[in-house]
Amino acid sequence: MLRTVLDLRALDNSLITNVEVLDLRQGSNVSQVFLEFSDVFSINSGHSLRIDGDANDKLTVTDVGWTDTGQHQTIGGQVYDVYTSGVATLVIDADVQLIGSFA
User: What are the C-alpha distances in Å from 38 to residues 3, 8, 41, 88, 95?
Assistant: First the structure.
C-alpha cells in the first residue's frame, strides 16, 4: 500500500491558487493532507475547498476553530460534510478520516 502526504502548511500560499477540489482517491492507497485556515483562505477567491476521498484518506487540520455546520451536500451521489472557520469553508467527503480540531 502506497502512502501520499501533502502538507499545504509547508507551501507558500501564493504558489497554489484557483484550486477548488483536492481528490485524494487512489484506490486502496492512503493519502494524508495537512492544512490550516490560511491554506483554505488563500487557495481560491471563494475561500472554499472540497476534499474528495475515501475511508483510507486522512485530513489533518492543525489550527483550532473548524466548526461542523451540520449541513451536508450530495455531489455525484457522495455525501459531504461542511465545516467553517471564519470565512473559510471545507466541504469534506464523509468517508475521509478527520484529525485535529473539528467541533
Answer: 25, 10, 5, 9, 24
* pLDDT tens, position by position, 10-29: 888 888 889 999 999 877 67
Alpha carbons 73 and 81: distance in angstroms, whole number: 7
Per domain, the residue ranges of the chain are 3-102
Q: Three cell numbers at 89?
A: 469553508
Distance between CA atoms of 56 and 96, rounded to whole angstroms? Answer: 7
Count Cα neighbours of 47 within 13 Å in the Cβ-side half-sphere.
Answer: 11
Distance between CA 85 and CA 102 in Å, rounded?
Answer: 10
Q: For the segment 45-62, what is each residue's pLDDT rounded down to a tens digit?
A: 899 999 999 999 999 998
pTM of the predicted model, to two decimals? 0.89
Compute how many other C-beta atoms are within 10 angstroms of the C-beta atom of residue 86: 12
